[in-house]
Write a structure and sequence with these properties.
It is a single chain. By secondary structure, the protein is an alpha+beta fold. The protein folds into 2 domains: about 25-85 and about 105-145 and about 225-270, Cyclophilin-like (Cyclophilin, Beta Barrel), CATH 2.40.100.10; about 150-205, no CATH class. The protein is built from 7 helices and 10 strands. The two termini are about 40 Å apart. The relative contact order is 0.22.
Length: about 270
Amino acid sequence: MKNLGLLIILNLLFISITFGQESQKRKKVEIDTKFGVMVIELYNETPKHRDNFLKLVSQKYYDGVLFHRVINNFMIQGGDPNSRNAQPNEQLGNGGPNYTIDAEILPQLFHKKGALAAARQGDNVNPLKKSSGSQFYIVHGQKYTEAQMNATINRANQTQIQELTKEYISKNQKIADQLKEFQEAKLYDSVNSIVQNIMNIVQNSPDFKPKTYRSEKIQAYSTIGGTPHLDEGYTVFGQVVSGLSIIDSIAAQPVGKSDRPIENLKMKIKIVP
């Protein structure tokens, strides 16, 4: 009886472990194009985007929709339902369902070649970085050396320092007045001295969050390539695991106004096991 009880417990444990593994499996979709098929895994870490995409695919929302914006060495974009029956030279990129998706931006999910990410409106009208309900892009990108990546991250950090410096000055009227006085008197060394001092202050403040590249990012961007300057600005929610060469073929197509391919490039998407 003891052995039987132990066997039952082990079986239940095995079933529990197996079920847990199954529940963590990534869902896959196929994007069928005139150049071939891409297989994409959707990340479980971005459930809102994953579930929305699967819902739309199951509704055949994307069937017949175009890749309406293509920029070689950058990305290929689609998902605008208005593109399905678009006339030549018609402006595209504003269509979609009447909702957005909350951002699910994670540092470990980045813009290497083949990354599936959500398109969105710019920060000036969309400070929360909410995603389009249907439009997406797939990264084409290019390869970067470690030196180029460090230069990119340094520029991003400098931009952050400059924004924090402006904010610091705007909150300190006395300093703002003093800077204005020195500028009018053409005492530029004094201006630079004050600004440099403020920049040193903000760099040591908790508001400054310097960006860095982890080793896996450096390896990915230097081998298969990508678009590192988009990291942490858009939600990446999947990755092409088969058919990367299809991206090359689409990205190489001639384009016209607003980067729309001259030839209509239709897609068809389905969920696969």
